[in-house]
Task: structure prediction
Amino acid sequence: MSTEYKSLFQQKADAYQNGQDRTKEAGVTTGLAVLGSSVIGLIVSAILYYVTQRACGVIWCVMPVVMVGSAVGIVVGLIWTVVNLVRPTKVVTCPGCGTEHRIYRSVRKYMCTDCRALLLLGKDVGMVPRMSACPYCGL
Result:
């Protein structure tokens, strides 16, 4: 189906479904960015602290605060990265068209990007998805 003939709802549904994998990737990228910048900040502040240790001034007084902040950033970056790497996913097969989709376990409603079937998913991983029609548009 070409983009000009898709309804706004279909376009938003496509953007949401296609963005789920990118969300996990973006979470890992952000976690690594926080981790990397915190490590660089810690190294630079430690070097400046030890180089200017004898000097009394703003740099000498602020560096311990920057070092602690960088250490906290390292912990947050590690947690953020690991949480996004191990975020639980499951594979759901659409009963309408047979397409397999990898989605997060927390997702309870999913629209198949191929046949537009709305899949209602239970909390049980082994539950077979059941199809449902939208009461407003009939999809």
Summary: The mean pLDDT is 77. The first helix runs from residue 8 to 51. The longest strand covers residues 89-93.
